[in-house]
Task: structure prediction
Amino acid sequence: KKAYRKATLCVHPDKVQQRGATIRQKYICEKVFDLLKNPPSVPTLAAVKLASWLRGAKFIVDWHKFGYTLSGLSHGRSHIIVKIYFWFEKYFRQMADGAFCVTKAMQHELDQNWGIRATVLYDQSASLMEKHGAREFHL
Result:
């Protein structure tokens, strides 16, 4: 587990950028880590879990928000859709091999209420994209 955490921090796009990576290297890292951002978790979590199992890859979730809370805003907290969404996220979180999140508050929530140990990796501004043309980001 220690080696896994070290490896993920070595190739995360933000960490690579901080170490002076080229635009192309950062772009590749972004594609690797852009496998799953949450939400939408229905049906994305199931599809990515299946794909990771079929390919023998790690199933890593990048938690930004909980889908069930967003669904609750439009349907109401006690709606059946919100309950199903909550169950879905809870079920598939148990299958994840690792997790990232973008704030310490989300890290605390994941740890205390979901039993998920997530690594905080703060989002970076789009200033890197603004400084360089889109052509540099294509392989």
